[in-house]
Design a protein that fits this description.
12 strands; 312 residues; disordered N terminus; eight-stranded mixed sheet
Length: 312
Amino acid sequence: MNRDLDFEEISFYCRSPIFMCPDCSHAAKCQDLMNLLRIYKLEEKTPEPDYRSLFPWTKPRQPGPLDPNNKLNEMTSGEWLKFTRTVLTETFPKTLGHELRRKHPGYKSPFLLGQLLSFFSKEQDMILDPFAGTGSTLVAAALTNREAVGFELYKKWIDIYYEICKTHDIPRQKLVQGDCVHLSRYLPAESVDFILMDPPNIMKSKEWLGKELKGDEAFDLFFSMMEELFINCHKVLRNKKYAAVFTKNMYQDGGYVYITPHFAAAGQRAGFVLKGEKIWENTAEKLRPYGYPHTYVPNVVHYNILIFQKNV
């Protein structure tokens, strides 16, 4: 057999079919066979680790002493204390559909979201994600034995979520296509145990409105929408339960735009109590030489995660 590949000719003189090579006494020293294996790179692939059993926030919990007064989660006192740190800087494994999820402009790791779910809810609790995207919250809910429902405006992200579930054998949660403000009106009152939302970029109105708006018009319409969504979420959340909201400040038109307080104010006007925030540093964010070498322009690589509680 002769094959011309990248101007390199490989000659294979043995008349036996290649599937007999494993039983051939000369195979170990057969240079022709080694050349074929080298050309076609017939190497065994290393299986992907089972992060569902290895990662601390998704592996089955070990029995241990839990405070009988802890009605919020299944964490021990040490785990609880660790979570209360206000800064998250962990690096998460690029698995469970990472290459598909990263097509979304605001994708998050299900392992990051799993930390929030693990603290603010218990197994079998109901989770709501109004901006579901490619379904990372729903994946995290499945890995931590929660139920979840998500809303997503665009079918292309829903299709990616379904593909991830199929590829990694993850139970599918409810993901409904449509506008989250409209859909959230029809959820039963006090039916949700935790709300996790990651709103889209305010200045990219095509992501959340389907058309381009500029400046103050986009800003005002976005927060009008967010305030209505907060009101709907306050209604569907059970009393004393929590909501976590990802926010990100921006550098726009030569100045720093402090977005986070606007989210905080919208949540408080809807009746939520602001309990604090966590800062998540996205260590995967690439640094760009904005302003170099004449002026300071920040690389915004962190999110402010606002923690609200319904307390009526």
